[in-house]
Amino acid sequence: MLGRRGRGLLAGLALALGVWLPVTAQEVLRVPSPILTLDQEQLFSQSRAADEISAAIEAEAAELAAENREIEAALTAEELELTELRPTLDPDEFRALADAFDVKVQGLRAEQDAKALDLQRRRDEERQTFLRQITPVLAEIVRERGAVVVLDRRSVFLSAETIDITEEAVARINAAFEANAGEDDSADPGAADPEAVDPGGTDSDVTDGEEPPRQEP
User: Fold this and answer.
1) Closest by Cα among 193, 191, 215 to 204
2) Quick one: which of 94, 121, 164, 171 has the fewest CB in 10 Å?
3) Has residue 204 been placed in a domain?
4) Angle between the 135-145 and 91-133 helix axes, to the nearest 10 degrees?
């Protein structure tokens, strides 16, 4: 068992650690790191600027999935019909129908697989376009942090949370998106006003089926 002196030393050590650790953490926060990390999946899923891209792609993916289900149901019904006809057909006739059905199935599968691959390709291209568009935001964070490289967090085995810039990047991108959206809404406010189409009053003075009055010289 620890004596009074031993317990006193442990208490003093615990107190010292309790005071020292928060200070060290604050100092770490202030030390710039040349390496930063970024979670691309989180960045894309939480950025409002990527919502439209995701919505369009996911809508096409849903349509493709529905189309696949319809094709599967039709092929299942056709296969069942062919199976029911088998007792009434001679073997050669049935084999010809079965081979034609297999060719049809393989062709449809190849066609739908090609659609899925094209959708995935466009999804990847849209994501790369998004990343290029937000590069200035990321570059600004890199400059402010005094860093020289940003790594994909998924490829890093272990890192400190203080070097991850995902949440900061999402916040800045969303703020910029909202600011741009506000500017678009406030631009050209008179364009939608029907009374502002012709300030000279020519259109408003002419009614349907009537000629404008002539002015005497």
Assistant:
1) 193
2) 121
3) no
4) 50
> What radius of gyration, in Å, describes the C-alpha atoms of the chain?
34
In a domain, 174, yes or no: yes
Range of the domain at 138: 33-179
150 falls within a domain: yes
How far is it, in rounded angstroms, from Cα 140 to Cα 150?
12
Lowest mean pLDDT among 41-45, 136-140, 203-207: 203-207
CB neighbours of 148 closer than 8 A, spacing ≥ 6?
Answer: 34, 35, 142
pLDDT in tens, 110-127: 999 999 999 999 999 998
CA pair distance 20, 28, nearest whole angstrom: 12
